[in-house]
Amino acid sequence: MINPKIFIGPMSKNIVDAIIEYSNKNNTPIGIIPSRRQIEHDGGYVNGWKTEDFAKYVKNGSDNILLVRDHGGPLQGATPDSGIDSFVIDCNFMDLIHVDVWKKHEDYHDGLKATIEFINLGYSINPDLCYEIGTEESIRPTTPEELNQLINDLRLALPEKVFKKIIYCVIQSGTALEGSSNTGNYNQDRLTSMVNVVKKQGLIPKEHNGDYLPKGLINEKFKSGLECINIAPEFGGIETKMILDSINDEKLVDEFYEICYDSKKWVKWVPSDYKPEENKIEIIKISGHYVFSDPKFIELKSKLSISDDEIKNEIKNRIKTLLDESKI
């Protein structure tokens, strides 16, 4: 199995195509991490793709892509559910699934039990499937000690051949996203402690929410032992900003805002007392990528001069920068 350093959220078709084109041209492994809201067995907000159609599109496009379901599990989809239906389909089309049950299970032992059940189910469906465990800080903070316990408990509970399918473990070092910025407080000692735990256990340390980090910080994290990182909203933000910058008509800006506002996709990224009508441009920057498949937006975009090739080239430039920063 290929082991990319950078994992990117498929926020739009342009982003997916840019990843495929870049990985092919440079023979570089890259991970794609669809959330259940983006790509789902019954359709998501990205290009209307269903899981099977999306997986086939990516796999037909490149052999350098590791396809990873991000946050597979209960309460992770567009509507509250057990996550089972989505997981079963994922087992047939993903290379690896991030088993994340912690949004439902705050109690450690409940979460451990659910993680074991999902991994055993996955192995029964597809013995070749691999897994990522743990979760990000915004869902359930953890400590190096508890992370070590989780890995030990899974090692004891799962058959050896099943446990060996666990490849990645999520570490936490203080990342958090709000709006279009990273509001976390980076703690290098915490990162180092968690990285050491994961590597000692024979797994690969992986961090989420690597978006909007200051220049040089990703490189610092990799020099401290981190081996891979997820970046998602930042790429949606790149495309949204380019589209927004290409609009010269204030009426079209207002139209873009109304489409974003009506989607309600911005709500999860802002404080409860946020006033959207006073922050129209910020609302667009936060949630523009969610509406790229909306017929109203497609009509709006048809009036603009910006091309998909321009957008993809900018995305490729950012991919190159991130990959350069991951070098140690």
The CATH class of the largest domain is identified as Alpha Beta
Main sheet: which strands, in order across?
Answer: 1-2-3-4-5-6-9-10
User: What percentage of residues falls in helices of 4 or more residues?
Assistant: 40-55%
Structural class determined from secondary elements: alpha/beta
> How is the main sheet built?
8 strands, parallel, barrel
Q: Helix count, per DSSP? A: 13
Question: CATH-wise, what's the superfamily of the largest domain?
Answer: Aldolase class I
The best one-word shape is globular
Uncertain segments of ≥5 residues (pLDDT<50)? none
Count of individual beta strands: 10
What is the count of structural domains? Answer: 2
Summarize the structure.
With 328 residues, the chain is α/β, with parallel strands linked by helices.
Structure, explained:
- The protein has 328 residues and is an alpha/beta fold.
- The protein has two domains: 6-233 and 313-325, TIM Barrel (Alpha-Beta Barrel), CATH 3.20.20.70; 247-304, no CATH class.
- Helix content is 46%, strand content 12%.
- The protein has 13 helices and ten strands.
- The protein has an eight-stranded parallel barrel, surrounded by seven helices. The chain has a two-stranded antiparallel sheet with strand order 7-8.
- It starts with 5 loop residues before the first strand and ends with a helix.
- The model has no long low-confidence stretch (mean pLDDT 96).
